[in-house]
């Protein structure tokens, strides 16, 4: 369905390509300390090498001339809401695909994602009495860092898939070649998704929530399952009485710096630079070196910024990142996303919590219980066990309580669809079941039932 767009774009591309090569954009001003392009002076990890520099320049220009996807005022409002979490007066629920795909940008999958997040938030709110802010990994989560730059199948070695904003999943030389036109497709898919997010309202949710009750029959009869059902039914009733909901806020990993730079705008009314491709962005585990390009880019924008904290994070690097990314110590600006894994969280996280606490920096701590708990099933599927995810989340909560720090929230890879990508949960998905509905474009996601169950258990552990 996008061939038409691509044809139109390619037609334009040939006309404008000579133009942009004759008049290349000015290089970043060296005298300025920071600009949207100053990252180009630093070493950058995980970036594609585009074979056609003119095509890249053309696409960057198109993005620079396109409307922002979110506005500076919305980003400021997001930060104000995050500041409440930093003060311990609310929770954050951040969730969505590991990697969005162009083909999945459909009404039903977006609606079911939002609906599931609304219900997860309602379960947490019901248990804790505190407001829950919802941020999707959506409308821009298209770029993926990879551990291996190449992949070999049989005799053939090709570049790894890096997310549909960069190259294709298809294992062919053509499919895996980075194509800058994909940045324009990602922008337009993000715009369509955002349009839908902004249009969905409570009436849609009460209607669909009512129809969804059946999918929660798992054939398992634990006591907590009955309580979960009762609470969810209460949620369905309440959703009709709720005030108009705030559209889901958006976030993605700030990975493909050409794209992020092109959507960076100065707020002429209030000053400051904003990344207008999402409300919140995060720095990935593989690109978090203090003196490298991704940190240079992120230090100049006013958006809230997340920092993934894996087992290799040291106190010194974390404090260095806080100083570089938020020297003022602004509440709601920095989110630390712990992704240690169940086997490492007890050994690795306490020192970081203590160091940050001692620094006085008003961060928000989140738990990502997905990325440290990935395993390969016998069938070859990458998967994660629900029980391990729950266990790491609860270890995080207990640790935060022990240190007198607010457990700020949850960052998960999830979908509103009933996929079979993670094992366990009420449906007791086994390794053998994984192949039934394994659809993810990258890492395994919690399905709708597993996501609701996690929120239910989490709400209980955040109760006090
Ligand atoms: C991700 O969130 O999909 C991801 C790649 O995470 P991390 O950088 O923590 O590995
Ligand atoms: Mn992932």
Report on this model:
The chain is built from 14 helices and 14 strands. The protein is of the alpha/beta class and 464 residues long. Helix 12 packs parallel to helix 13 (386-402). The radius of gyration is 22 Å and the shape is globular. It starts with a helix and ends with a helix. Mean pLDDT is 89; it is low at 1-22 and 24-31.
List bound small molecules.
phosphoenolpyruvate, manganese (II) ion
Structural class comes to alpha/beta
Percent helix range: 40-55%
Give the strand tally.
Answer: 14
β-sheet strand percentage: 5-15%
- Which runs of at least 5 residues are low in confidence (pLDDT < 50)? 1-22, 24-31
* Total of DSSP H or I helical runs spanning 4+ residues: 14
Instruction: Provide the gyration radius in Å.
Output: 22 Å
Q: How confident is the prediction overall: mean pLDDT?
A: 89
Could you tell me how far the N terminus lies from the C terminus, measured between alpha carbons in angstroms?
50 Å
Tell me, briefly, the overall form.
globular
Can you write the helix and strand succession as a string?
HHHEHEEEHHHHEHEEEHEHEHEEEHEH
Major β-sheet profile: 8 strands, parallel, barrel
Q: Taking strands numbered 1, 2, ... along the chain, how are they ordered across the largest sheet?
A: 1-2-5-8-9-10-11-14
Task: Explain the layout of strands and helices.
Elements (H helix, E strand, L loop, with lengths): L2 H20 L30 H12 L7 H15 L4 E6 L10 H22 L3 E6 L12 E4 L2 E4 L13 H4 L4 H19 L2 H10 L11 H19 L7 E5 L3 H6 L1 E3 L6 E3 L4 E4 L9 H7 L5 E5 L5 H11 L8 E5 L6 H15 L4 E4 L7 E2 L5 E2 L2 H17 L4 E7 L34 H14 L3
Parallel strand pairs: 1-2, 1-14, 2-5, 5-8, 8-9, 9-10, 10-11, 11-14
Antiparallel strand pairs: 3-4, 6-7, 12-13
């Amino acid at each position: 369905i996008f061939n038409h767009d691509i044809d139109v774009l390619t037609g334009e591309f040939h006309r404008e390509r000579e133009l942009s090569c004759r008049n290349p954009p000015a290089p970043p001003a060296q005298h300025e300390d920071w600009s949207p392009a100053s990252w180009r002076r630093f070493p950058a990890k995980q970036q594609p090498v585009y074979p056609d520099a003119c095509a890249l320049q053309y696409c960057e220009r198109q993005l620079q001339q396109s409307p922002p996807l979110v506005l500076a005022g919305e980003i400021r409002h997001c930060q104000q809401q995050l500041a409440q979490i930093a003060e311990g007066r609310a929770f954050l629920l951040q969730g969505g695909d590991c990697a969005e795909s162009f083909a999945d940008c459909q009404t039903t999958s977006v609606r079911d994602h939002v609906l599931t997040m609304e219900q997860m938030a309602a379960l947490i709110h019901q248990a804790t009495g505190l407001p829950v802010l919802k941020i999707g990994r959506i409308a821009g989560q298209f770029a993926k860092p990879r551990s291996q730059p190449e992949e070999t199948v049989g005799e053939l070695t090709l570049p790894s898939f890096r997310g549909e904003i960069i190259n294709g999943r298809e294992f062919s030389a053509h499919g895996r070649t980075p194509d800058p036109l994909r940045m324009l497709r990602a922008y337009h898919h993000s715009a369509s998704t955002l349009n839908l997010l902004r249009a969905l309202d409570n009436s849609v949710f009460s209607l669909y929530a009512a129809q969804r009750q059946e999918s929660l029959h798992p054939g398992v009869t634990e006591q907590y399952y009955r309580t979960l059902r009762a609470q969810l039914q209460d949620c369905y009733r309440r959703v009709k009485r709720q005030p108009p909901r705030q559209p889901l806020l958006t976030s993605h990993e700030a990975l493909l710096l050409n794209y992020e730079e092109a959507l960076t705008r100065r707020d002429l009314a209030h000053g400051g630079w904003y990344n207008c491709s999402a409300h919140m962005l995060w720095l990935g585990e593989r690109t978090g070196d203090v003196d490298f390009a991704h940190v240079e880019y992120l230090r100049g924008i006013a958006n809230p910024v997340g920092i993934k904290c894996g087992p290799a994070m040291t106190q010194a690097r974390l404090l260095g990142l806080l100083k570089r990314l938020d020297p003022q110590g602004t509440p709601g600006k920095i989110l630390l996303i712990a992704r240690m894994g169940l086997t490492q969280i007890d050994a690795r996280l306490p020192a970081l919590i203590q160091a940050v606490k001692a620094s006085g920096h008003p961060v928000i701590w989140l738990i990502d219980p997905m990325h440290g708990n990935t395993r390969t099933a016998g069938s070859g599927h990458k998967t994660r066990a629900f029980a391990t995810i729950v266990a790491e989340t609860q270890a995080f909560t207990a640790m935060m309580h022990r240190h007198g720090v607010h457990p700020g929230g949850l960052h998960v890879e999830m979908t509103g669809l009933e996929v079979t990508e993670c094992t366990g949960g009420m449906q007791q998905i086994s390794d053998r079941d994984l192949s039934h509905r394994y659809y993810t474009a990258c890492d395994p996601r919690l399905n709708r039932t597993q996501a609701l169950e996690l929120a239910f258990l989490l709400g209980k552990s955040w109760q006090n």
